[in-house]
Amino acid sequence: MKKIKGKIRNIISIYRYFGLSLGCYNFLLSIPFIKHISLWKKINKKYYRLCKDYLYSHYLSDYSFDDSDEIGRIDENSNIWVFWWQGICNAPELVKKCLSTIIKFKGKHNVVIIDKTNLMNYLDVPDFFWSKLENNEISIQHFSDYIRTRLLYKYGGIWMDATLFLTDNVDEDLTKYGFYTIRHGERSDYHICEGKWSTFFMASCKGNKFFKYLADLQEKYWRNEKYPICYLIIDCFISLLVDVSPFCRDQVNQVPVNNTKTMQLAKMFTKDYSDVKESVDEIIKNTKIIKLSNKCKVNTSPDSVYYWLLNVYDNREEKTAL
Which residues cross the membrane (predicted)? Predict the structure, then answer.
């Protein structure tokens, strides 16, 4: 019942703040069985097209780009940024396991865990963000979307969501680029990112204007808006920048396809490991960065894929190059 009430409040808020069209499409996407019909992809694509139209007209149409600076390369000694607002001691078991793999396979990078006690040591965050957090006008997820872009612009480095499970050292190929992300190629027919980028893993050189633009646009949005137009606001802004800025578009397009099965393992968490062993082993062997989730359904029995990953797999399997 609580979940249903939340969906109803969301539909009403989208209609109130962003108009009838977005409200109607938001309603359609909230229907429980909608994902099981073929029309869902078209509805989802149209919804995010409307979101992009709104964001462009209100925040991007008069934005001044400055692409004069050349971008550098990602530093092999730069920080890996991990965010867990409540502090890693209070994180779920899955997050702690993921963090242990990030630390194990960090290579020459230093791992910095950002939480509510140390964020101010790295960034000066505008006061209105703190007010919105206190009043529940911005979620921790949307707040972290802003924080990751600010950190990457100011310091450079690698942003990794706390639910990333690493099976090998961070790819040295990152140092060939000024921008890098997981380009898995999935959901290219309907998702806002078209499989070209993943905000849960983004790397950049210090001072890359791409991330300045993203930080500016999100800051402008949250300074003016009282409600999120969608869950994937940062992806909408990335998509818009790819549309209108050759500087940003070139950076995204030069990232090679990598970690194509990054999201497959989480889908198997309810299954017995013995039933899907071949598929699991193939993912582990050929995927360096695996996206998990602490919100998906799991089977905690000793026979499950979930249990095997957290308690049996020891990260010592030999890897093949991607």
Answer: 12-34
